[in-house]
Amino acid sequence: MSSPTFVTARIDTVFKTDVASAQDLPPGSKAQMKAGTRLAVNKVAPDRFQHVRLELAEPLLADDGLTTLTSVCAYQPHLEVEGGNPVIRLSVPYYSQTNNDWHPGFGDGYRQCNLTSCTMLADFLLEGELTRKAKAEGLREPESFYQQVLAKYGDTTDHNCQTQALHELGIESYYTQQKLSAEDLLLSLGKGIPVVLGVKYKTGGHIVLLVGHDPEHRLWLVHDPYGTRHGASDSYDVGIGGAFDAYSYSSFDRIFWDRGIGTGDGRIVTSVRGKPTGLPTGL
Description:
This protein has about 280 residues and is an alpha+beta fold. It has six helices and 17 strands.
């Protein structure tokens, strides 16, 4: 049985129905919290912009004196959390894009992040099937086998082509843009399913695989096929590390949710070998 979870306000703060500025919310959508206030919660989950989403064990009266709040956001640095959700660390094998057999002549795994991230996803969900098929065909790595499948449908940068390639392998999924919330990510991880994510990088983007979450240390765990990224910067140790790369909530805000609307891009898996995952089908 898991231990109860409590949150304590470190300073005077505000519990809100949204991550918007407290000044912009009406009295019925927020509640003032005095420093030292300690409340029991059923769930603590990361939200955007260094906030956490709290499901309260008991309803809280809003500032209007009429409305009761049961689900609120709070600025995480203002809180002390006791207990909470366990660490999720999916045992996904890590593959690097920098040593792939196939690339269009640019080296360093150029344009291989999506292919490699989808390979990690598929090989994990199919329990090593891509690795076994690559070996049976005399290929050096599972990415080479997946590339043969993907080539039937088009370019590695095209998410629709990735969807078709994964479908051929028995994985039903879809890529959604500016729709994913922290709740969506945690739901997928909680079901043992990694999430292919689109993140900001330089003037464009990059694709990585989300494989875990550490609520105690406030970290998201990512398999980055390009290597070790230095926080939210554009600097990398290319081809070095990359497995379970830890991103603080603030770094993740900048590369995943910093699009003005607080939602991100990624791939939702709806079934594996005909077995539904229970994840939403229409984000």
